[in-house]
């Protein structure tokens, strides 16, 4: 089996890796690049724990081949904070207890960030539908939805 | 397994024609699930996203040509397409989550050949056609002729769908698609219904196409249902006839997603609701 | 232990506030390490071959081709495990089948290989010859005398002759005379209720990383609710001494009871032993659904007698729970808990533990209780509404209180049931108007709460910060609670304490994170450990001051002379005492080891509004309010989170979640696509009202809160849907086809 050589950008950094043709982007991130913040909950695109942004578009990294990353710009949870400065969503999730076990949290944060980039003033319904592909079994979503809405309000005030 | 990402249509065709067990990758939202669950073990995957035009929505013959790798999210962001074919766009927009929307395509949804595919009834109602690239050049086919049964398509070796084409949208015309799922998101359609119609100045239906998904081995165009509302105003009687025609046409099975009785009944319910939405849109009202 | 008067009126400084959780930053940045996130040098991939049959005899397993494949380092089958103690025999058989496979997905062999691809290939090379046997997956079918039998000779003596051997055990609870009670009733409601099996649905699949040296020492990294349980169970199965196996708990991505047992761990250790290399195993989602613990599916007969003014004269329930392929369904807990909210003269429950060809049921949040509550709370609702009575008033009239003899035996101390009902009655939700096709339902729920073996070690560092070591995985913010209780007791700020989950080598035995026990029991041990440290610090101060240690007391984070007679000394803060610890006798620590008792039962009342789409049978949850007694809410945000999470799991159970088996005994929905847990867009906000009726058994009055919240929702939603539909729903899930069929049947009748 000859491996593929892929050049891509991950969280702003030029990155090269070798992978098998059948490796998913999730496999590559977790097992080859050590970026284990992106989680596998189902491997079938049903839970959203593996959410990343590819060229600014939210996708499930379990449903994309590593080879497809060639020349793309990939953003994962590891790139969300700037140095020791948390993203406002990250800060708000901690403040408002919008996580319990935390396994779905990276995917939800990446998805919520993608929403707020497109829609700085989402309604509750818009937040709920945008995040419908991110399963959380602990919280009942209440505090997650509130945290996203409050972050959006804070960010609107700050801008 | 090999991974290839050709830049030209012809190269994709020759790769697909030259290799047993070659699969096309566009959005990958079905293909990768099958790959991971070992339902398929491809020798080669041909990624068509880097071929010119595959990620474009372009005006053509008064309608729209949609590249095979255009995602649902990209369709939803295209104002012209949304204005002309809101039903097709919303059907594509119902496939999976926001994340799936970032990748899933009309062509992929069609080639997966699931009877429950959301975008297919909408495309059938719209009278959509596909342009197929293959060893003998390009050929066109009506969307309804592509699926041949669960998991089977009319495509031949070396062929793949390069574009979907939606026809010109006439005056006082619009479409709608509704599906029933147990939750509000993330489910496969238990029943789907697409309706495209045109109205005259007196709100009378002048032409209609009605299609149903998930109630038979293939998406079906229900001519009796279209006939039931053509030349009529969509009043209670017309809608009842439409619903009855759809329920009668449905030939579903009992499975983990729904029962025969439920699906037949709901086929009528959705047809009635979709017709009302399509008619409102055709009149220029928001729906 | 008694709650003394000073503590009843205690003013808390840290407890009751909402500080940031200590693991927050790790969890929002992706740094937190869960089960699958660990690697080891030379690590192999372990994978399991699973049965494609519901019930079959294993005639032959030939792994020679797999062993010959390049990159395969070990193959394990049941033959690799020796005889094991009886109490873990079923556990091992569930982890690796012996003579028979008992359900679709049952493990039959495992490999360790150099890559996932090689491991996948190796599994395909293992030849298993099966003799397929008849199977049974439905509980009512399994109890029939002619049903296929899973286990011969396992039936207990309490089961009458003539019943299928699949009926393993009988349990009975109650007091009074049911027949006499029914005679006093003006109305008797008698119905059979059914619930489908549901899965805990944690988002993190099971995962572990095992290493074992040729000297027999082993290490295991694992996502579990109880690493001490994992150690003890694996040591027994592998014939090891417990001290030779060190287990470290990873961060855990949800459990809800499903991670209180082992599945992969003994197999991973055996593979690591044979291969001489570390082995990592991670389940796929489909493996999780096919082969780890769902809950029981049930069939329950209820008979309730009520007078026209709402007095319950008799309550009877017969419960049949299938617990999957091995004995031990939670039917006894269903039988104990169903009538627990009520003060009844005549009450009786009868439970039957039944085996079927399904995965062995594991605990799921208040195991056994939600189904019993669904049946009983539905019947009470129907009886009350039959007389036009207010369902909250009827529950208040019959509700249990301090001094009530519970249906399962004990007499209650101070409890919070009526407080939750009174709060519900006064809440604006109860009086809000309802629209067309809408219904409102209420129901009560009860959970025992557990205590159990617990160790906490609290250490004072030389600079006067505090570390707490405890042995229970933090599944939903418990490190924050422990930190808060330690800070409270020591009188120091929250950020001066850090709590860690210690490995099995660092503390004595700790019971699993279950039974809503952690904030109660580990909290209690933390407070006691802090008290021990305080006592020692007072002694050190006494030494410095040259006074009696009894003359020193601890207040606001410092040792102080206790009263004017003790002498005049400025207070010595914790930091000051820590700084000179080396000169006053050495390091300072407190620890506490206990089998905690006095957990304090917990009650809740739930209220829900639904709207039906009468054309499709679809139910929308419009509004939801949880009223629950927390004893004392240590971190109210995480208490609310438990209430909300339990309610939403209950919503899933009530409306859409179910294990669907085909006639072939194969699970048809082994994925999150068709095993439909609630998504964000399905739900409204979940309002919460925290009641605080102190638990006399805890120094701060804490009761467990994690489980009670899943007990009422099934019934509350069924009561709401039944009201909106005008027809009584008796079977879960109330999926759209089922509700539509009920509406159509009613229209036709």
UniProtKB/TrEMBL annotation, chain A:
Residues 4-80 form the 2Fe-2S ferredoxin-type domain. It holds the Pfam family Fer2. GO terms for molecular function: 2 iron, 2 sulfur cluster binding; metal ion binding; oxidoreductase activity. Keywords: 2Fe-2S, Iron, Iron-sulfur, Metal-binding, Oxidoreductase. Its EC number is 1.2.99.2. It comes from the Bacteria. InterPro entries: 2Fe-2S-bd, 2Fe-2S-bd_dom_sf, 2Fe-2S_ferredoxin-like_sf, 2Fe-2S_ferredoxin-type, 2Fe2S_fd_BS, Beta-grasp_dom_sf, Diverse_Oxidoreductases. PROSITE patterns: 2FE2S_FER_1, 2FE2S_FER_2. This is Carbon monoxide dehydrogenase small chain.
From TrEMBL, chain B:
The keyword Protein biosynthesis does not apply. Residues 1-171 form the FAD-binding PCMH-type domain. Keywords: FAD, Flavoprotein, Oxidoreductase. Gene3D superfamilies: 3.30.465.10, CO dehydrogenase flavoprotein, C-terminal domain, Uridine Diphospho-n-acetylenolpyruvylglucosamine Reductase, domain 2. GO terms for molecular function: FAD binding; oxidoreductase activity. Transmembrane segments: none annotated. Pfam families: CO_deh_flav_C, FAD_binding_5. This is Carbon-monoxide dehydrogenase medium subunit. It comes from Roseovarius tolerans.
Automatic annotation (TrEMBL), chain C:
The keyword Transport does not apply. GO terms for molecular function: iron ion binding; oxidoreductase activity. SMART domains: Ald_Xan_dh_C. Pfam families: Ald_Xan_dh_C, MoCoBD_1, MoCoBD_2. Residues 29-134 form the Aldehyde oxidase/xanthine dehydrogenase a/b hammerhead domain. Keywords: Molybdenum, Oxidoreductase. Signal peptide: none annotated. The keyword Oxidoreductase applies. This is Xanthine dehydrogenase, molybdenum binding subunit apoprotein.
